[in-house]
């Protein structure tokens, strides 16, 4: 039974793709009454099971899973939509005497669940289009230079080629009349709604990359190509969500642009690169406890027990 406290306890299992987060959560579920909340930006889509490493039907039968299979592949789903659904879900899980356990590798989603989203103005599509046209007209880097002028702090945190983030920062500045960096800083000091314990499976990079390579082969053996082929037949090659890691390489194969071997090699390569970026994100979070794969489980159990008793 979860100890009643002013702030609800939330367990988080995070880390890069291929690090065994789901297996870790299922192992903990044998010791604690968990309900799993998936924090994966693609597992919300139906029919995208193999390529997103979604929990199997058997795994979902063992432990309740939430935030998967919510929308069809051609529907829009944002991080704000995600938060709107998760926020009321957490107290409902706690009210059942269970521990909400957030599991995933989408750092933005986890951050949004635990701290919410900054109170930023909604998209101004007309302004956004004007800014994008200005970049085309004035040349690459012009919007980044504009951001340096109006919000140098935000500009310093963004790569000059990351046009999506730069346009959004300028959009916020112009619509709100305030600096994007100031709004984000104010949000960072806002009250956090939960007590949180973050755990992450820890592998050295070579072992992690080996796991990724093996998992890619397993996904292909399990029918990833057929999964993508079915989506293409029911929608189209232009389905936006299929332009993401693992799916876009299969699309290239189905279009006969690359060979089957190249498809597998590319999925492995780009997944390793993605895992590296995820590691960079999570390594910056000082409150994560990295759990060595060889660490005895009783140390992890004790940490969770102590956390729940706070």
Overview of this protein structure:
By secondary structure, the chain is an alpha/beta fold. It has a six-stranded parallel sheet with strand order 3-2-4-1-5-6, with helices on both faces. 31% of the residues are buried.
Count of structural domains: 2
Number of strands: 6
Give me the CATH architecture of the largest domain, please: 3-Layer(aba) Sandwich
User: How do the SSEs run, as a string of H and E?
Assistant: EHEHEHEHHHHHHEHHHHEH
Structural class: alpha/beta
Rg, alpha carbons: 21 Å
Instruction: Give the strand content.
Output: 5-15%
Average pLDDT rating: 90
* Biggest sheet descriptor: 6 strands, parallel
Indicate the low-confidence ranges by residue numbers.
Answer: 1-5
Any key phrases for this structure?
single chain; 310 residues; alpha/beta; Rossmann fold; Histone, subunit A; six-stranded parallel β-sheet; 14 helices; disordered N terminus
Topology diagram in text:
Elements lengths: L7 E7 L6 H9 L4 E5 L18 H6 L2 E2 L12 H17 L3 E6 L2 H9 L9 H14 L3 H9 L1 H5 L6 H14 L3 H9 L5 E9 L2 H17 L2 H11 L12 H8 L5 H24 L4 E5 L4 H12 L2
Parallel strand pairs: 1-4, 1-5, 2-3, 2-4, 5-6
Helix pairs in contact: 3-4, 5-8, 6-8, 10-13, 11-12, 12-13
Question: What's a concise summary of this model?
Answer:
This protein has 310 residues and is an alpha/beta fold. Helices cover 53% and strands 11% of the residues. The chain has helices spanning 21-29, 57-62, 79-95, 107-115, 125-138, 142-150, 152-156, 163-176, 180-188, 205-221, 224-234, 247-254, 260-283, 297-308; strands at 8-14, 34-38, 65-66, 99-104, 194-202, 288-292.
